[in-house]
Every structure is written in structure tokens, then in C-alpha cells.
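hey so i finally got around to running the thing on that chain from the lab meeting. sorry it took forever, my laptop kept dying and i had to restart like 3 times. anyway pasting the input first so we r on the same page abt which one it is
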Amino acid sequence: MLILAYLIVVVAMSFVSFIGYWLDKRRSVHGGRRVPESTLHLMDFLGGWPGGLIARRRFRHKTQKISFRIMFWITVALHVFVVCVVAFIF
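ok and heres what got predicted. didnt touch it at all, straight out
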């Protein structure tokens, strides 16, 4: 049951993260107000990193900025670490 709940959260947050990256890319092209990088990282940390990874590749967004790429993978590692700790406790 806990695994199903986790998978639902990951799918939902991946969708939210994907939309966040799409919105940021669209705003960067059209000169609008950008989505803060911290918001993108938070969405990724909360389980949306698969959607963020797909969006980065799909929209070719945030792929060249090394500091963002490093923080993205740190966020993924932190997410996986927290999931492992919670799985170990339960």
C-alpha cells in the first residue's frame, strides 16, 4: 500500500515538474517571468525528478548550465536517500 502511494506521488509530481520545466522554457523564449530554479529543484526533490529529467531532454532546457545539472543530480540523490531511509524504517 505504501509503495502504491509513493508511485502515485511520483507520477503526480513528475507531471507537475514537467509542466514547471515547460512553463520555464516557454517563458525563457518569450521573455516572461521565469520559474525559479529553487522551485524546479523542490518539485524534483518531492518526487518529480523523472518528469523533470524527461522535460529537460524533451525541451532541451537547463541542459547546458552545469550548476543546475549538478544540483539536479544532488536533488535526485537526496530524494532516493530519503526514500531508502523511509523504506528501511517501515
